[in-house]
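Take a minute with the sequence and fold tokens given here and flag any structure token that looks odd. Thanks in advance.
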Amino acid sequence: MAANSTEVMWGPGFIGCIIATVFYGISFGQYMFYLRSFPQDSKKLKLFIMTVFLFETIHQYTLIGIYWSILISCRRSTSLECTTQLPWQMLLGVFMSYSVIFAVQGFYAHRVWIITGKNRLITAIIVRSHSHHFFRGEL
């Protein structure tokens, strides 16, 4: 096997894509369970959860699209587009991933603020930590 073959370059990421797809299926089941088990939740909370799930669905679509483009569409192709450019789904996937992480961590900080009796110090520590990691690009 060549040192820079497709198997070596994209194999581990493809395995991760398969695992992420399994986890997406699990989260879909959790989403359906939530909708059926908590009909009394507020419309704002349901809208938030639906939006996060929609973003995660788009993220999963782009992840599968990236590997489809690289491993299927560009298989045995030596065109300039296939060998040098990343698929357009890459940028959208990163944006969706950051959006989901930011929304979920913001929701977590909101819940801590409520549970601690609106304690600003604890909430500020959490928000600062999340913001620090978000703006440094650390997922």
About this structure: The helical segments are 6-37, 43-73, 80-84, 89-115, 120-135.
